[in-house]
Amino acid sequence: MVNGTTTLFSPLSRGSGKDANMECPLCKCKKFYLKNPDDEYETYGFDCESGDVCFDPGIDDDDVPDLTGDSHIYCDTCTWSGKYDAIK
Ligand SMILES: [Zn+2]
Residue 43 Cα, ligand 1 centroid: separation in angstroms? Predict the structure, then answer.
């Protein structure tokens, strides 16, 4: 018979969406911004310090574009940019 136990333990399991540690893949910073799709000079900063997306104070919720997995976001500190999915 098969000798041994089935190992379900995976020390590096990630990406389940739970216990999200959203940070920049390059610099580990938790501050990002996204651009207004209609006006690339208009940016909306947010941070993920708490594990949730918190837009900067003063940004009107109504103005913020929908943040989806496909949204293109930019690191506030380094040159990284990519899909929001990449940091979730
Ligand atoms: Zn970065």
Answer: 16
**Residue 13 confidence (pLDDT):** 43
CA–CA separation, 49 vs 22, rounded Å? 8
CA of 29 to the centre of ligand 1 (A): 5
CB count, 10 Å around CB of 22?
17
Provide the 8-state DSSP code for 76: S
Instruction: Give per-residue pLDDT as tens, 19-44.
Output: 568 999 999 999 999 998 888 899 99
- Average pLDDT over the chain, rounded to whole? 83
Residue ranges of domains in the chain: 21-70
Cβ atoms of 76 and 60 within 8 Å: the answer is no
Reduce the DSSP state of residue 86 to 3 states and report it: helix
Residue 62 CA from chain centroid, whole number: 20
